[in-house]
Design goal:
- With 151 residues, this protein is mainly alpha-helical.
- It has one domain: Winged helix-like DNA-binding domain superfamily/Winged helix DNA-binding domain (Arc Repressor Mutant, subunit A), CATH 1.10.10.10.
- It is built from six helices and two strands.
- 23% of the residues are buried.
Length: 151
């Protein structure tokens, strides 16, 4: 349901927030390497997030990406909406243009329940919630067991 762009953006923002909470800025190469994401694509995503005010960046030897505002103020739904819009929460699961409660496709009710639940989760969770989950050691944003800045 989420585009690769949103998936990568969420992982990158969480990584930036994890480092920001330690007072550290992170560079694009570090983010791409640690998260095992394509560098060029990650660069476009990060610059878009900076332009849209979700994260910030500073150039130079002590530069990098950091949180523009507290991670607790950045909702998951805001990130999804900023990158992909909310169309995914309205589209018909079978591609019909006129799918609705009064004119449903055979999957309408099932997909509607799934979308409503996902929308509720995205509305209620912030980047800080994701950071807290990673900090417990229960959840991961990379295939590596531990997320540590590259030296």
């Amino acid at each position: 349901m989420l585009s690769k762009t949103v998936e990568y953006a969420l992982r990158a923002i969480v990584y930036v927030a994890l480092n920001d909470s330690k007072g550290q800025k992170v560079g694009i190469k570090e983010i791409a390497n640690v998260l095992e994401l394509p560098l060029h694509f990650m660069g476009k995503i990060l610059q878009d997030l900076v332009r849209k005010g979700i994260i910030a960046s500073v150039k130079g030897p002590h530069g990098g990406f950091y949180m523009h505002r507290p991670a607790s103020d950045v909702g998951i739904l805001e990130v999804v909406k900023t990158i992909d819009g909310l169309e995914a929460f309205k589209k018909c699961g079978m591609g019909m243009k006129q799918c609705s409660d009064s004119h449903p496709c055979p999957l309408h009710d099932d997909i509607k329940m799934y979308r409503e639940r996902l929308l509720k989760v995205f509305k209620s969770k912030t980047i800080q919630d994701l950071v807290d989950g990673v900090n417990t050691g229960k959840y991961f944003i990379t295939n590596l067991q531990q997320v540590a800045p590259i030296a």
